[in-house]
Design a protein that fits this description.
With 143 residues, the protein is an alpha/beta fold. It contains four helices and seven strands. 25% of the residues lie in helices and 25% in strands.
């Protein structure tokens, strides 16, 4: 399904809507260039899962963990990692078994590690304006 959003807040709201339909063990795979809203979408996922705190990009830490909601959120950023093997080196399989939601930014760098049923999110800039985005969601139906 394709959605058009006009702001960071609308991107977060779409993430919160997706969170409502995710089950334990779900993997959300993001693709999109720098500044397209991947972290904003992940903030919405966290809010939708019931996490009340601050959500930031895990670019330098590789993974941030957010617990305290309906399900924990494990937010990965593959930007600085060379390949899927690096994801396994930081305990990818353990995260999958913990019963939370794994959100992976720059997922194309870890394509070999992603399960076939991963929810795929593609974010792209729209010609209507700098804050507008087209967000395509594959593998989940939103309420």
């Amino acid at each position: 399904m394709e959605y058009t959003v006009r702001s960071e807040r609308e991107t977060e709201d779409l993430g919160a809507r997706l969170a409502a339909v995710l089950s334990p063990g779900a993997v959300v795979a993001f693709q999109g260039g720098l500044g397209m809203g991947k972290t904003a979408f992940a903030r919405g996922l966290a809010r939708g899962l019931g996490y009340p705190g601050r959500v930031t990009s895990p670019t330098f830490t590789i993974v941030n963990e957010y617990e305290g909601g309906r399900l924990p959120l494990f937010h990965f950023d593959m930007y600085r990692l060379p390949d899927a093997g690096a994801l396994f080196d930081i305990g990818w399989e353990d995260y999958l078994e913990r019963g939370g939601v794994c959100a992976v930014e720059w997922s194309e760098r870890a394509a070999d590690a992603l399960p076939p049923d991963a929810v795929r999110i593609t974010l792209a800039r729209c010609p209507q304006g700098d804050d507008w985005r087209t967000i395509t969601i594959e593998g989940a139906d939103l309420p």
